[in-house]
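User: Reviewer 2 asked us to show a designed sequence for the structure in our supplementary figure. I'm pasting the structure tokens here. Could you produce the per-position amino acids so we can include them in the response letter?
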């Protein structure tokens, strides 16, 4: 049986999630959904946001016997095309982050070029896996539809645009580096911008990666309390592509806050 977990959850502190995502509320929701372990992973795009993660840490420390194991993580974003993360061992240790998830969050093109968009994604995916301070690659081939609509670009609505060789190379590099590939519920699977056909194609893409023997992480990427069920959908996808318990990534550290 696959673990009931969610290692990609945002809070209201960084403002990308709404006011429903307080620490006590999201912990209660995770328990309601039957999760046994979660990770708080709000954004650290720039170092000036680090104090807000201190607020998250204090809220976690205030929890008493939450009934669920909780880890303290962070989500990283590239500071420009082929740039760096706002992340180092010193930053990690300053607040005691237990793991990092991260990846590309932009197309990095000024004019529509589908091949270049895909190539940018793939290059940053590999770079993330090769970063020894990043444990999980987040939501491969997620895009914000608003950016496409604003520029009047054709929407990225098929995984057929991604060569199979890219999926296999990603799986190989992820296995070599011990990086997990995220199965993301809200960004890739229950995103209203994507069709059922896209989800089927995405399942095929993940299955190809899995053939290369790497690990996978399960995350909701919830920004609203009512979207935390995205982790359940991600878990169902893991089952759909035939993953075993041994193929599911879990944080190596002891929980920041233990269930009891």
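Assistant: Here is a per-position design you can include in the supplement:
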């Amino acid at each position: 049986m696959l673990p009931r977990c969610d290692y990609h959850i945002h809070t209201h502190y960084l403002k990308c999630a709404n006011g429903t995502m307080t620490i006590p509320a999201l912990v209660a929701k995770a328990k309601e959904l039957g999760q046994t372990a979660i990770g708080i992973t709000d954004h650290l795009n720039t170092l000036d946001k680090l104090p807000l993660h201190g607020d998250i840490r204090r809220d976690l420390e205030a929890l008493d016997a939450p009934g669920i194991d909780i880890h303290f993580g962070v989500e990283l974003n590239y500071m420009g095309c082929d740039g760096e993360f706002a992340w180092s061992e010193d930053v990690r240790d300053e607040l005691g982050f237990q793991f990092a998830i991260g990846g590309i969050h932009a197309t990095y093109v000024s004019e529509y070029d589908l091949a270049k968009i895909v190539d940018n994604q793939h290059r940053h995916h590999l770079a993330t896996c090769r970063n020894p301070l990043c444990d999980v690659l987040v939501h491969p081939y997620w895009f914000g539809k608003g950016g496409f609509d604003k520029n009047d670009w054709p929407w990225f609505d098929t995984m057929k645009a991604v060569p199979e060789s890219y999926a296999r190379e990603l799986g190989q590099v992820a296995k070599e580096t011990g990086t997990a590939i995220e199965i993301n519920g809200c960004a890739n699977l229950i995103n209203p911008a994507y069709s059922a056909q896209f989800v089927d194609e995405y399942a095929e893409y993940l299955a190809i990666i899995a053939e290369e023997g790497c690990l996978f992480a399960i995350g909701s990427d919830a920004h609203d309390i009512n979207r935390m069920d995205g982790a359940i959908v991600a878990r169902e996808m893991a089952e759909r592509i035939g993953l075993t318990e041994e193929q599911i990534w879990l944080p190596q550290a002891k929980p920041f806050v233990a269930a009891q």
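For the response letter, you might also mention the following. The mean pLDDT is 98. The first strand starts at residue 5 and ends at 9.
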